[in-house]
Amino acid sequence: TCFLLVLPRYAHFMHRLCTSPCFSSSIRSYAKVSVSKRNLNARTMSNLDPHLGYSAETDTLGHLDTQVIKIDPKNVEAEAAKFEVPAALIRKGEVVGFPTETVYGLGANALDSAAVSKIFLTKKRPSDNPLIVHVSDEKMLLDLTEGVTEDARKLMTTFWPGPLTILFRASSKVPKEVTCGLSTVGVRMPSHPVALKLISTSGVPIAAPSANLSGRPSPTLAEHVYFDLKGRCECIIDGGATNVGVESTVVNVETKTVLRPGSVTLEQLREIIPDMEVYSQESDTENLVHRPPTPGLKYRHYSPKAGVLLLVGNSTENMKKIITEKIEEFSSENKKIGIIHTHPKDFDFSDIKINPETCFLITLGDGSATDVAKGLFASLRELDGKGVDLIIMEGISEANEGMAVMNRIKKAAENIVDVDK
């Protein structure tokens, strides 16, 4: 109130901020608890954009000392002492980068609204984009929800621990900063040993989106997290490369809908719930895209700095022809181009003259959906690091895990070309 009296020109702006569904209470508590720690003064707090959760002009994060703690996922019990620092930070209300089997997460105490607010500020996340909560046991889950339905129990029994997030009715203990004011909360139990040990050592459920600056490709290595968030968080746990490479599958068991595809596939889910369907914006009667119940529905994601051209369709002959023409075009203009090659069994580029200074080719394993998923985000980041002007991605079949891969790359792509037309 005093702030509004001193600076009346911000009154309208602050009114919008304080009525924002995710930030009304958390910004006030965050200002009391954490301004001195994060060097956020009153002017910084006054200029927070209620739609983004931060203001680029007054974003003063970036000056923290970021500690990287290396932990072997195969020896978490032997290295249990290494969890003391990150677990203490979680309990204290800070954010920590940590590995899961899908991608690296940026975690905070899911029951602490001020701590959750720091996730949005640290990664510059839109404030209407809900968070997924990670648990290490069923007691944590029951504290977060109003109950577990029979269908949810079947999915938990089959796929937990693992890369499946289930929407539950949120209990009163879940801060609205996590759910963005919605009645549901997404929860999963990760299978990564480091993630499980961090949660259990912290003693609280951990809310965590991917540990990258919002909109960037998700991190699958600790060095990706460090590149994006150095100075913005105090601790990153380095547990090596993630196993899956794309974010978890998200399902709403009440509507029997896959809201975000992942490595737990539609085909697998239908073995448990036969009438499970995939969310489509075209058939969205609830207008979920404007008030998304889960990450991945509303905003452009996974985008490198370079433009992305996605080639879809069955004709690998046409696919190679388009890529060849682009390589020649960019070479003649002395521009850099990156190719993410996903059809090594169908064609190669051995008959094309490639200048290694301007053309960078990354082949993702044998082209299987599993290999492509595991290497997708790292490839986008690697080509960005080469300073390419364009990235061409060869699309794959959307069967099984391919659906998750194509979901992510379509969100990253500026242009999509059907090679069959």
Describe this entry's structure for a reader.
The protein is an alpha/beta fold and 421 residues long. Helices cover 34% and strands 16% of the residues. It has 15 helices and 16 strands. It has helices at residues 2-6, 11-18, 26-38, 42-46, 84-92, 113-123, 138-144, 150-159, 176-179, 193-202, 222-229, 266-272, 316-332, 369-385, 402-412, and strands at residues 67-70, 96-98, 105-109, 132-134, 164-169, 184-188, 206-207, 235-238, 249-252, 257-260, 277-278, 307-312, 337-341, 359-363, 390-394, 415-418. The chain has an 11-stranded mixed beta sheet with strand order 1-8-2-3-7-4-6-5-9-10-11, sandwiched between helices. A 5-stranded parallel beta sheet has the order 14-13-15-12-16, with helices on both faces. Strand 9 and strand 10 (257-260) form a beta hairpin. Helix 5 packs across helix 10. The longest helix has 17 residues, at 316-332. It is globular and about 60 Å long. It starts with a helix and ends with a strand.
